């Protein structure tokens, strides 16, 4: 049984690695045939492990490593704007470096939602973890509603949805897009700091 289980794990990993190679070659919407060929398995075998090519792409993109949040925040220091911009860089930096991959992830995530397969942890967990860490020094000086407003406003400027919004809807190039997301994050951080100062003066 252990041998069979190991083989299944290797085949599944081969499919994920194959999809990653196809995405890296610039194919934004790989088919199951392309993924199976890259993994050197049959199309029928691929479908025994994943229901669709979108499922493979979603898992590949979800597992992509990004910088450790504690290390990022330690390097940023205690200034809220610096911390928020560091979070933006960690999240948007790797997404805008691979816009086709980000689009592929977004398509796969939407496909999961439309097929009723989405989970609560599918989407915002990583970006919200960075945002919460960035705001931690002033969190206790913001009201509950203020924290939620700042947190969710920042979530609009970070993540895979920002890629099609900036590049496709607004027709910006990558540099312009990153300038816009950083401007949004800087502006929200400035407002968060103002709210924190007001909260501190009320309680002092």
Automatic annotation (TrEMBL):
<keyword id="KW-0238">DNA-binding</keyword>
<protein>
    <submittedName>
        <fullName>Putative TetR family transcriptional regulator</fullName>
    </submittedName>
</protein>
<feature type="domain" description="HTH tetR-type">
    <location>
        <begin position="9"/>
        <end position="68"/>
    </location>
</feature>
<dbReference type="InterPro" id="IPR001647">
    <property type="entry name" value="HTH_TetR"/>
</dbReference>
<feature type="DNA-binding region" description="H-T-H motif">
    <location>
        <begin position="31"/>
        <end position="50"/>
    </location>
</feature>
<dbReference type="GO" id="GO:0003677">
    <property type="term" value="F:DNA binding"/>
</dbReference>
<dbReference type="InterPro" id="IPR009057">
    <property type="entry name" value="Homeodomain-like_sf"/>
</dbReference>
<dbReference type="Pfam" id="PF00440">
    <property type="entry name" value="TetR_N"/>
</dbReference>
